[in-house]
Amino acid sequence: MSTTGSGAPAEVSQSDRLGTLFEELSELAGQRNAIDGRIVEIAAAIDREGLLGITGARSVAALIAWKVGTSPRNAKAIVTIADRLDEFPRCAAQLREGRLSVDQVGVIAEHAGEGSDDHYAQLAQSASVSQLRTALKLEPRPEPEPVADPLDDDKPPAPPPVPQPTVTSTGSDTDYVYWQLKLPHLDSAKFQAALQSHHDGLIAQWKHDHDDESNEQQPPWPTVGNAFMTLVEAGWDAEAYRRPHGQHTTVVVHVDADTDVAALHLGPLLTSEERRHLTCDATCEVWFERHGRPIGTGRATRTVGRRLRRALEHRDRCCVVPGCASTRGLHAHHIVHWEDGGETELDNLVLVCPYHHRAHHRGLITITGPAHRLAVSDHTGQPLKPGSLARPPTKPPPDVGTYPGSSGERADWWWYNPYEPPLRN
Ligand SMILES: [Zn+2]
Ligand SMILES: [Zn+2]
Asked: Which residue range or ranges hold the HNH nuclease domain (predicted)?
């Protein structure tokens, strides 16, 4: 092994070698930390200056993961620090100086209480990421924020929030837990249609299984509550199996053939943007009507059949919007809408995630086909490109100190004083 011919014992040269490698690691880690520190600042700037909107990305974390070519988890740590930069100036400074890693500062930013910057900046210098996690668990959890005084009207009124579905449990007794659902109209129509479809399915099944009506032992007639539970179970069984050949959750849309005015079945009128979004994929059933009388369903021309869907999944694999890579609950989007004569065929269809599908039909991103020459651009017309922005460096690495790393010692929690938030009067 030894090639020096000096006769030095192999162990010594191995430990020297390791020492040299460790020195280099320490320097590289310092540089990487400093670079991550700058990436955190860039993420904070993108957020602060409201630049996310023109990128087509769903969040700053998704944007960072895409442009830096890093994992969603790493991107999340970066964004978590970026969100609390002002609260943790010392920790952030140590990241920029190379002395703490993005994972160390990430767990602090994720869990640490207000005013704890000094405490954790100190601790992190000698603690590993898991030791920091333990320390953060020992921190007493803050009490809920006091409710804002309704008479205090100094602040300008907030813009009305976008309606969001909520599920809250409202209590329980020995037999039941009680739940309350609050759904925006579109979601509610979907929920109602899904429930109805599952209820019909259960009734059909019941009739099939229990043809002898006089049998006392047979289970009770299926309720809407039973239907709700099969709906939950169906959702549990992975979205992929649900469509297109499983039991459809069908939303019915009525479209007036003369005026293109659409309404949800038993529900509100839709804006034309909502109509085109809802009717793009095969997740809803469209009834064309003239003077309130149905004249046809138009289903045959736009339904993405099982084989077509498979071919599409095989070709696209995930949402086609660059940087997204989402694979769950994908919609088959018609590049040229079938209302405008677009065909339901491979070259006119692409898979998009629900987020980007909505973003497209709201005009935030543009998807131009045919599918084999797909172009996706943001709302300013700038093309969105896949792949990270990484390229070989042209500047010297940041001039920072080396990264000492955690001490590697077993933490002695007996002597550790968790961070205590200062008492407020
Ligand atoms: Zn679409
Ligand atoms: Zn997407």
From this structure: 307-358
